[in-house]
Every structure is written in structure tokens, then in C-alpha cells.
Amino acid sequence: MEGAALVVVSLVIGLLVLAALLALVTAGGKKTQGAEEVTGAGATDNQAVNGEVSEKGPGPKKQKQQQRPRKEKAQQHTFTHQLLAATLKAHSGNVTCLDFSSNGKYLASCADDRTIRIWSTKDFLDREHKSLRANVELDHATHVSFSPDSRAFITCLANGETIRVFKMVKKEDGSFSFSAAPEDFPKKHKAPIINIGIAETGKFIMTASSDTNIFVWDLKGEVLANINTNQMTNAYAAVSPCGRFVASCGFTPDVKVWEVCFSKSGDFQEVARAFDLKGHSAGVSSFSFSNDSRRMATVSKDGTWKLWDTDVEYKKQQDPYLLLTGKFEVMEPCRIALSPDARVVAISSGSNITVYSASKGEKEEEFCNVHSEAITDLAFDVNCRFLVSTGDRAIRVFHNTVGYRAVIEEMKVRLKRATNEGMKERLRQQIADSQSSLDSVYAKKD
């Protein structure tokens, strides 16, 4: 009996020891599992829960990995120069085109922010530069051009590849309201439009695309003529300031000029070939007319720019005269601007601008890194006081000091030749006025 009792006691003690061991093993397993859940072992750092990234789980390493990197704001491009008259800032997108009104009072600019801005040129030298905004609904404008009476402007629509007309109505407080025409021009171009223009005579509108097409329209949106330039591609096209000519350049090393002919009663007749500018050895990137269309300037990929006398009897097969050739450093894209009085030539190459004397062909001013991107447009105002450029969100306005110096030199030459006392007095006054303007520019910067 005692032996049997001893066996029973031993079995009980063994069972108790075994139970204790099992309890310890189970507790250890739960502890290990809990540790895995805390450290994230067996799961990815960015665990998706219902398609979203789980933010659970302490630990500095995991929290650091889930923080989104901050986006640094783009640094605004700064540019300073002694001859910088103003920087116009209002657009929230890159400015693509500029145009001065024929009365010299306004500058229009368009950008990819779906707006056109109208600036007053009399405010250029003020500290603040206000502008009026016209919205481009459901699209954005790539080009803008004033009407001859400065009461309307046309824009080229980027997505629509067509023309929209805006009327400007002056309010009692001097500001303007803008209203778009009920309908846009019909879409005719099959390639992107590279430029537009309105004839100063008010008789036609020109649009040119990057293929080989130029369309001539009446003001109501009816096509008058379609010109095939036969240049493989068009690089640039424009209407002459006198309103008689349409010209284009492109892949070929020449500039082609046509006359848009109307009858005495104002009816459209035809587009006739007028003359060509030949002399470059590579494709022409851009060209520019003087205000009276008697001079033209061209810039080519061959690294040269040329000034031409286009005051010729082209109907008698007389060719334009080459006046001078200059060299420049080619950085695409290139644009050229001839001042309205044909005294100054400005060339943009990449984001740089170089200004030359049109009488000597010598470089007189250079502005480097004017914009953060390549320059998209370059133009002189109608009074030859300013040179304006754009290539990003800002519009740079420069004093045309080269023009002032050119006037002074030209008037001094005329003064030596003058025999009439009245003429001499007028020339002395012009010299004094130009010298005063030139002195004031440098005086403000000193």
C-alpha cells in the first residue's frame, strides 16, 4: 500500500512540473510575438491597409521613412544691370509673346497662365507696375497682337490652334474691360502656330504655322489666301509695320517677302511675291522690319546677322541691298529686333542679349543671363526708348542707350553739313535732348 501511494504522489508531482514547464513555454511564445509586433518584424515598413500606408508603429526609424520630403520652392531668377529700367511681374506662368500698341501707350503680354496683361508704358520708370488682366477661357494664348487703333487685340490659342479676338472698352476711371468675340476663327492650321499679326492698314490678319503654311484672313475670320512657303519648315513669319508685306524664314538660308495686294476700293486682289533676302549660308532663325519697312535685319544659324536696304523697286526686279554683316555667338533659339528708326539691332541668343550699332555693326551692349530660360520674345517700343524681353515669368525693360548715342552721332554729322540756320538749331536741339536722356539714365544708376 505504501508503495502504491508513493507512485501516485510521484505521478502527481511529475504532472505539476510538466504543467509548469508548459506554462513557461507558452508565456515565452506570447512575449516573443509581442516583441515582433512592436518591432514590425515579419511586415514591410510601409504596410498597406485598405490601399493606404499604415502610420502605426512607434520607432524613430520607421517614422522617418514615412515622412514626405519637403518640396523646395524654385528660386526666383534675379537679374540686375545698370541699364535695366524695370522688371514687370504679374504673370504666374511663362510669358511667350509681347506686342506694343501702335500709339506707344500700351504693352500686351501673354503667358501660359491663361491671361493676357496690358501694361502702361508711361509706368515703366515707376516703382510699381500695374497691369490689367484679360482671361483666356478654356485655353491659353501663345501670341498676342494689337489692332491698329489700339482698341482690340488678337491672340493665338495654344490648344485650339486658332485666333480669338478681344475688344478693349475704356471705362470712366481710365481702366479697361475686355470682351472676347462670340466665335473664334475657324481652325485651318494643321501644325502649331508660330506667329500672328495685324496689318497697320487694318485690312488683313496673318497667321503662320511651323509647317509651310501662312494664312491671310480678313478681320471677320474669312481666309483670303493660303501661302505655301516651300521652306520645309517655317521658323518665323511677320507682317511688316507698313502693312503691305508678309515675310517668312525657315529651313532655307533666305527670307521670302510677299506683298498683300488690295484694289483702290479696298477689295483683296492677290498675294504676290515681292523680293527675297539672300546671302546667309544656313537657315534663317528670325528677321525684323524697321517702322517704315525700308530696312530689314536677319539672323542666321551660320553665326551672322545682316542689315538690308529694302527700299527698292521690286516690281522692276530690283533686289535689296546688303548694307552690313555682323557676327554673333549662336545659342538657340535666336531672335533679332531692329529698332523702329533702324539705328539699333538687338539679338537674343539663348538667355543673353547683345545690342549692336546698325550704322557700324559693332557690339555696344551685352546682357547675360537675362532670364532663367531661353528668351521667347524681343522688341523695341515704338518710340525707341526701350528694349523689352521675356523668357520666364518676368518681363525685362532696358534703356535703349545705344539708340540715344546713335542719334547724337547722326545729328552731329548732319550739323556739320547743314547750311540753313534753322536746320542747325533743330539739330542742336535734338542732340541736346538725346544727350539729356542719356545722362539721366546713368545719373539714376550712379
Could you provide a short overview of the structure?
With 446 residues, the chain is of the alpha+beta class. 20% of the residues lie in helices and 39% in strands. InterPro entries: WBSCR13 (IPR042410), WD40/YVTN_repeat-like_dom_sf (IPR015943), WD40_PAC1 (IPR020472), WD40_repeat_CS (IPR019775), WD40_repeat_dom_sf (IPR036322), WD40_rpt (IPR001680).
| Strand numbers in spatial order across the main sheet | 3-30-29-28
Mean pLDDT: 86
Low-confidence stretches: 29-65
Sheet with most strands? 4 strands, antiparallel
Alpha-beta classification: alpha+beta
Judging from the principal axes of the Cα atoms, what is the shape? globular
How many H/I helical runs?
4
Gyration radius (Cα, Å) is: 36 Å
Instruction: Determine the N-to-C terminus distance.
Output: 124 Å
Strand content bin: 35-45%
How many E-type strands? Answer: 30
Helix content: 10-25%
Biased composition (Basic residues): 59-71
WD repeats: 88-120, 186-220, 277-309
Keywords: Repeat, Signal, WD repeat
Protein name: Transducin beta-like protein 2
